[in-house]
Amino acid sequence: MNEKEIAEIRRRFRSDKGNIFQLRGCYVNDKNEIISEFKQSTGTMSQEETDALLTIIKKTLSGTLGKNLIDIEFATKQVLEGEEHKLLMAIRDSSLEDDNAVHEFYDRVIKTLQIEGNYLILLAYDKYDVPFYSKDGQNQDSSEVFSYFLCSVCPIKLTKPALSYYTYENRFRNLASDWYVSSPELGFMFPAFDDRSANIYNSVYYSRNTSDIHPEFLESVFKSEIPMPAAVQKETFQSVLGDSIAEECNLDVVQVVHDQLSEMIEEHKTNKETEPLLISKKTVKGMLESCGVSEDRLTEFEEKYDAEFGANTEISPRNIIDTKQFEVRTPNVTIRVNPEHSNLVETRIIDGAKYILIRANDGVEVNGVNIFIS
Hints:
- There is one protein chain.
- The protein is 32% helix and 29% strand.
- It contains ten helices and 18 strands.
- It starts with a helix and ends with a strand.
- The strands form six sheets. Strands 1, 2, 3, 4, 5, 8, 9 and 12 form an eight-stranded antiparallel β-sheet that branches. A two-stranded antiparallel sheet has the order 6-7.
- The chain has three domains: 3-227, no CATH class; 228-322, no CATH class; 324-374, no CATH class.
């Protein structure tokens, strides 16, 4: 799914549209026991309750594609024979009404998911009459009904006690702690909405934490190849780059790679491209070649890239650089620079000692105090 398709589905989760008509779920305690279940329609809830619940569930389709939102692909054999795929299809095709399938799904999640404290498993089902737009942009009759469900796993957290003032009593009173449903820690949508139609070979997985994407959940529910978390991709790329070109990995090389990747991201955003931006090892190799990196080191980079990511694997540049920050770090000092002004930083050897130099023509403050450099 691309960003436009994600946004289209997210708009479904609004009470004024009255779209999501079937909800069910269970409350799981810290001993992995189901202590309550519910199944109801949004039609039986107040608008305030519906809005609050749909806002929470909608966050399962939030964040950055390739980072928080990860494409999960089923192999053809899984679609034809796999138990995990049949289970998801049974839940979807029954509009969440197949109790056996739903309870089997609950069991799979509870037995494997590693999450602290109490949590809620929420399931939301929807049937979307996908509108068809003619070439002149006019909305035509729907040509397809997209049937899907969302799963959200939401931690249950305890509020802090607080002091409140009650106007009608003209007095202060303590508000006791209470439990509330927090934003999803993880979840998924099945099937995917690709090219504005159902793709049962794919699902979209959500993880709030880009470092820990709960591989145990992915293995239990999808049994598909587990993607490398975005945070791990960044660390791995940094390691591959530094280790492969070794002594040729100077400040200028890292600046060029950062600047060119940032430009690609900005151009992709400016052009409002719908498909996710991906780069290959060939893209990075070209950047390194432009910096004069030797052929031996380029070969080393390719070999290490293949070993860590896979020969034909493409990665998102958004996962491996921070476009808002350029950081120079030593064991004792960390320098953070606006990437647009990274040229103010340079490295130099003076009298045999290595230095990081920062050009400071404008005002300089130390602990908020203006100082003079003389």
